[in-house]
Amino acid sequence: MKPTISTIGRFVDQEVTIGAWIANKRSSGKIAFLQLRDGTGFIQGVVVKSAVDESTFEQAKSLPQESALYVTGTVQADDRAPSGYEITVTGLKVLHKAKDYPITPKEHGTEFLMDHRHLWIRQPRQHAILTIRHEVIRATYEFFHQEGFTKVDPPILTGSSPEGTTNLFHTQYFDEDAYLSQSGQLYMEAAALAFNRVFSFGPTFRAEKSKTRRHLIEFWMIEPEMAFVEHEENLQIQEQYVTYIAESVLRNCPQALAALERDTSKLENIQAPFPRITYTDAVAWLQEQGFDVTWGDDFGSPEETAIAEHYSKPVFITHYPKAIKPFYMEPDPENDEVVLCADLIAPEGYGEVIGGSQRIADESLLEANLEKEGLSSEAYAWYLDLRRYGSVPHSGFGLGLERTIAWLSGTEHVRETIPFPRLLNRLYP
């Protein structure tokens, strides 16, 4: 196997050659220290003047940041190094000498860094966050495969919406209106009635004019949908999934978590089962805490944060009023004013990371809800077909990838949890 920084531990006391870039460097007369990166990780290369020829040492001292090169040297175990290893360099071959790299080792403003996002993702902190993103995605596929789910891809261009078209991006689809999808849920319901348990993973779009640290215009969603699954089992599967990805990040991303100085005890505490509180009880508790909220109001960030801080784990808020939830949610058979749904609120102020519910299985009730919402039964005819031909109790949920990564990595703003964020005022780069 060709050596990389991520696999360097397999080559202790051996001479290797790796392709790398200079992330940073420093020198002290007789020794040059190169902070090297190769895309798989970071490692220090030590160049001792007495051990190399004069040209090599001068290159080590003078090569600018982000110059590309082949580095030859011997791998040494070093407990003091973040990676546990370093390279004693014996030779350098310069591939490209960078000039005036804009992101120098100093403080830069966020807008400057966002303008240079194509370069910013090379930095150790950004690399760590996106490494955790990769692990969450990898663990997601692994979890759902192990649990017997089939991956199904819903369309991105749609003629209708699960939650109305108010916040959707509109486009022309030849001679008719179309929208960029804000959720694949309705299509996943069709897939669930064909494959039993399914999940999708893909981009979604919401034209919300929000500038909060929790919002992106384009973001990625994991949306499982399950036939013959009711509200309680739906919550249990969510608990198992979130616990699984948290454990995977802890187990497989120790260096990334260390680079982010993440308090891993917070992640170790993400263990099922999660506490639950009904919306009605949450309103009463918030009122006791002095919040100006009445039954029927939707919760905002301050309310969600206060509720989450009351618990040491993620918390489910269940049974919201049907008036503030989408048309497809199943009413609670014991209280027609609320629906069988739940939002999973992450601790540490990260807010809602999952929204889910049991879906309406009765054709007449679904049709009445569509009419009440002013939605065309013709546009949703295919969705109504699912209740006409073999309807069963079914449930699902959607997990927002970027919010989840922000929470697990301890990152303040979701813009750093996606390689190239799309924000209210940003379409570049």
TrEMBL record:
GO terms for biological process: asparaginyl-tRNA aminoacylation. Pfam families: tRNA-synt_2, tRNA_anti-codon. Its main location: cytoplasm. Its EC number is 6.1.1.22. It catalyses: tRNA(Asn) + L-asparagine + ATP = L-asparaginyl-tRNA(Asn) + AMP + diphosphate + H(+). Keywords: Aminoacyl-tRNA synthetase, ATP-binding, Cytoplasm, Ligase, Nucleotide-binding, Protein biosynthesis. HAMAP family: Asn_tRNA_synth. This is Asparagine--tRNA ligase. It comes from Salsuginibacillus halophilus.
